[in-house]
């Protein structure tokens, strides 16, 4: 039924157009970037509105400045100590990105192993679930004891947080391959390696990217959780210090930078998706209108 | 054209009894949790090289199972399947397979979808390029080589799948309801083209279909199957000329006889159950 409707849809949307391949490719990338820009302006407007409300509330003196500082004071704090904030942002970014990268490698590799070996899947799944449900803030102190006071325990917590959505989404993607595609591959005499690189893995990429987007935000949380438990640098440390000193402008600044870090990472993943999977991105926008 | 001499130059024909496909006393049983299902029982067939054979029957009578047996994707529970005299023991590479859904890779253009066949088989690039051009022209895909599957209509997608299945000049082409998802008009066009392509390539074709008209128009012989457990009810020789104009064929007495007989068989067997 679904196949029928997509075919009809495709037929209606396929006039005889045959531009040169290079032109099409370029137009495709350009068009998807344009779509990307178009899809970003609304959330940006909402964000701006929130800032206006924040500014209005503080300017009208509705709350005490030591509870909620104004946007202006928050910005002043950052501008007055750019070196300080830059250093701590760099530390947290480093932990986040390193943790995210390790989570991708470990997550994808274990997903592939799990899909190809049901035995491994059965024995590994409970362990995975256990690692996911255990509150990270509760085991973070243990990592400090084991791995010391440096960046390593923070990276480990970030990996632990980001790993799970990547594994789940990759396993789902690899398993949702059309069985006919695999049969077809068998009649072509393809080995398991060829089937994986040419059919199965590319087909799983849309799922993988969905997992990466969740994981990107989780990695930031992981790094900051690690810093909360014991650190002398990083945005988590900045926030804890500011909290102890009742220095709400610094606290707000730390929070904002941290959120921005998560958003930047998320957008980076999404941008990569648009560039790597133009075929999927374009179909996804179709999907919104045809309720596929 | 270099495409016409594929079956005649097969060297392995000499070693066998000459048949392209032989199915001997085959039965297929599936074991599900609740019960054992017999999909096929006591099926015996012999298909000569270059023949076009259609298989019709009610849904679930094991038509597709039959194709899976020939391709080696499925092993029979008992009996034997031979391709060019060789026992089929695992997935066979010397066939082309076309499914009901075109099963194209969405991230590849039409041309690169066809080339998948060559990449998997590690065929020399230079030789393949010319072959792809040939097929694109033969199937009427010219101008659509660089379109992605979601930019192609259902009929065009199926043409790409057909090119992919024919790329390596398989001596046997297996088609599992290839036009089932197309609209009636496109389907007729595809029938006419498939008939022409079959005559140009000389490939042995096994076509599973639900359309009685399609089965008769395309084939030399039509195998009518009984409902589950599927077995051969009757093999009907189609007494039509090699040169078949679509409209004219539809009004031939021989066409009416064949389709009428098949309809009787299918109707009779379903009401009897």
Describe the structure.
The complex is a heterodimer of chains A (292) and B (273). By secondary structure, chain A is mainly α. The N terminus and C terminus of chain A are likely disordered. Chain B folds into two domains: 166 residues, P-loop containing nucleotide triphosphate hydrolases (Rossmann fold), CATH 3.40.50; 66 residues, no CATH class. Chain B is built from eight helices and ten strands. Chain B is globular. Chains A and B meet through helix 1, helix 8, helix 9 and helix 12 of A and strand 6, helix 2 and helix 4 of B.
SSE map:
The complex is a heterodimer of chains A (292) and B (273).
Chain A: H1 2-12, H2 21-59, H3 71-80, H4 82-116, H5 118-133, H6 136-147, H7 152-175, H8 179-187, H9 192-229, H10 235-244, H11 248-276, H12 278-290
Chain B: E1 21-31, E2 36-47, E3 52-56, H1 63-71, E4 78-83, E5 86-87, E6 95-98, H2 110-121, H3 125-138, H4 154-166, E7 172-176, H5 184-201, E8 204-208, H6 212-218, E9 221-225, E10 232-237, H7 246-250, H8 253-272
Parallel strand pairs in B: 3-8, 3-9, 6-7, 7-8
Antiparallel strand pairs in B: 1-2, 1-4, 4-5, 9-10
Helix pairs in contact in B: 2-3, 2-4, 6-8
């Amino acid at each position: 039924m679904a196949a029928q409707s997509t075919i009809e849809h495709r037929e209606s949307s396929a006039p005889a157009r045959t531009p040169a391949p290079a032109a099409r490719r370029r137009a495709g990338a350009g068009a998807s970037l344009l779509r990307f820009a178009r899809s970003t302006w609304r959330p940006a407007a909402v964000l701006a509105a929130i800032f206006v409300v924040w500014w209005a509330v503080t300017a009208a003196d509705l709350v005490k400045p030591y509870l909620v500082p104004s946007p202006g004071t928050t910005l002043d704090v950052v501008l007055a100590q750019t070196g300080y904030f830059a250093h701590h942002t760099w530390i947290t970014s480093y932990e986040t990105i390193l943790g995210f990268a390790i989570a991708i490698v470990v997550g994808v590799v274990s997903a592939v192993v799990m899909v190809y070996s049901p035995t491994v899947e059965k024995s590994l799944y409970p362990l995975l679930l256990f690692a996911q449900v255990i509150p990270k803030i509760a085991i973070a102190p243990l990592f400090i004891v084991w791995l010391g006071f440096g960046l390593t325990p923070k990276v480990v917590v970030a990996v632990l947080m980001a790993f799970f959505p990547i594994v789940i989404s990759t396993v789902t993607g690899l398993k949702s391959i059309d069985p006919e595609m695999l049969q077809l591959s068998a009649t072509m005499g393809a080995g398991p390696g060829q089937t994986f690189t040419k059919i199965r893995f590319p087909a799983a990429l849309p799922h993988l990217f969905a997992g990466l987007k969740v994981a990107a935000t989780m990695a930031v949380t992981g790094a900051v959780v690690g810093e909360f438990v014991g650190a002398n640098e990083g945005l988590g440390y900045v926030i804890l210090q500011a909290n102890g000193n009742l220095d709400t402008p610094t606290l707000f600044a730390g929070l904002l930078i941290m959120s921005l870090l998560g958003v930047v990472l998320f957008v980076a993943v999404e941008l990569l998706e648009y560039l790597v999977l133009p075929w999927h991105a374009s179909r996804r926008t179709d999907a919104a209108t045809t309720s596929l | 054209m270099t495409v016409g001499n594929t079956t005649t130059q097969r060297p392995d024909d000499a070693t066998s009894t000459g048949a392209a496909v032989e199915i001997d006393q085959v039965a297929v049983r599936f074991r599900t949790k609740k019960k054992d299902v017999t999909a096929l029982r006591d099926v015996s067939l012999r298909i000569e090289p270059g023949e076009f054979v259609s298989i019709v029957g009610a849904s679930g009578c094991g038509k597709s199972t039959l194709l899976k047996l020939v391709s080696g994707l499925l092993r029979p529970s008992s009996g034997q399947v031979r391709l060019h005299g060789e026992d089929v023991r695992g997935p066979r590479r010397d066939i082309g397979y076309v499914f009901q859904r075109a099963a194209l890779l969405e991230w590849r253009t039409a041309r690169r979808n066809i080339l998948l066949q060559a990449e998997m088989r590690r065929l020399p690039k230079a030789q393949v390029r010319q072959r792809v051009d040939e097929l694109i022209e033969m199937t009427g895909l010219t101008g659509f080589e660089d379109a992605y599957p979601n930019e192609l209509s259902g009929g065009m997608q199926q043409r790409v799948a057909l090119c992919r299945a024919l790329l390596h000049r398989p001596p046997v082409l297996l088609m599992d309801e290839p036009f089932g998802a197309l609209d009636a008009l496109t389907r007729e066009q595809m029938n006419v083209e498939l008939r022409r392509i079959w005559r140009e390539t000389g490939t042995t074709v096994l076509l599973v279909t639900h359309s009685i008209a399609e089965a008769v128009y395309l084939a030399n012989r039509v195998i009518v199957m009984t409902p589950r457990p599927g077995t051969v009810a009757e093999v009907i020789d189609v007494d039509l000329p090699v040169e078949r104009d679509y409209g004219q064929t539809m009004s031939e007495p021989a066409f009416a006889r064949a389709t009428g007989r098949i309809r009787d068989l299918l109707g009779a067997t379903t009401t009897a159950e």
